[in-house]
Specification:
- With about 325 residues, the chain is mostly beta strands.
- Helices cover about 10% and strands about 25% of the residues.
- A seven-stranded mixed beta sheet has the order 9-8-7-11-12-13-14, with no helix packed on it.
- A hairpin with a 5-residue loop joins strand 4 and strand 5.
- The chain is elongated.
- It starts with a strand and ends with a helix.
- About 15% of the residues are buried.
- The C terminus is likely disordered.
Length: about 325
Amino acid sequence: MNTFADNRSTEKAVTPCVAADGVSGNPGVKCDIDTTPGKFKVDGLDAGTYLLHEITAPDGYTLNKTVYQFTIDSDGKVTWNGGWADGDTAKEMNANLIPDANNGNAISDQSTEVTWYKVSSEDFDSTTYLKGAQWKLIRTKDGSGSSVKDEAYCIVDGNGDGASKDGSLICPNSDSDADSGTDSSITRLTDVSKVGEQSGAVQDIADGIIKLTGLKFGTYELVETVAPEGYNLSTTKYTFTIDQNSSAGATVQISFKKSDGTSQNVAGNRIPNKPGAEMPDTGGIGTSVFLIGGTLAVLVATLGLAEVRRRRS
């Protein structure tokens, strides 16, 4: 058995690959001799049958669990035989499961994925989600656990205009919005929760569901910046971790710290808001109504008490 190592990276330096033969049942190493990141080329393989599978996914993508089989004949011709989607080679091989020959034997990985839902605290299990929330997302650690600085993102449910309730822009659509007073270091992410049934294209429709794909590996902090209409802003700081197993079939668990410092999972990644309404401005008609109503209540209570006393006397 040999391990093939991609000796190139577009983001950071990696340890140079050193070819080695397998010893005592331990796999050997074959180095990638292609100069293009993401492409592999290995030479020096003997004639025989080989199994190929991914052991480390690129950052922002999930691990491809498929095991592919290919053979090399005595003339050096390579033939792809098929594969096992779940990696279990004890099962029958799927002869149609081979790399895409039309694209240079391409083997695809799926993007990482995380989803959460906005619900009312008074109807937590409802499938009618609260629309229009906005969020700030900060990547605090990378995939190795090292601290990350100045990596902040914002998200708008349905990819709306990104304005707060007072009209100020807090989630820019592009770098050109930086002169509006928005922090230019924040990057806007696309909510992909709503897609067309036929086209598969993202639809910019708020639905109370946030789905993000392609997040890099690491630990993230999530806070709400604009609440759904008619609800109070949540002040809870949520966290989640993205790794190479963060696929659509494996839910990324969102959690938060309780007052005693212990961590608690968010059930179903359903993040609640408490119903509430904004009070009218001080001195407005709403305040006047409350004050007049309060005065009347006091007067009625006082007069009623006086009437009782007078009758008793």
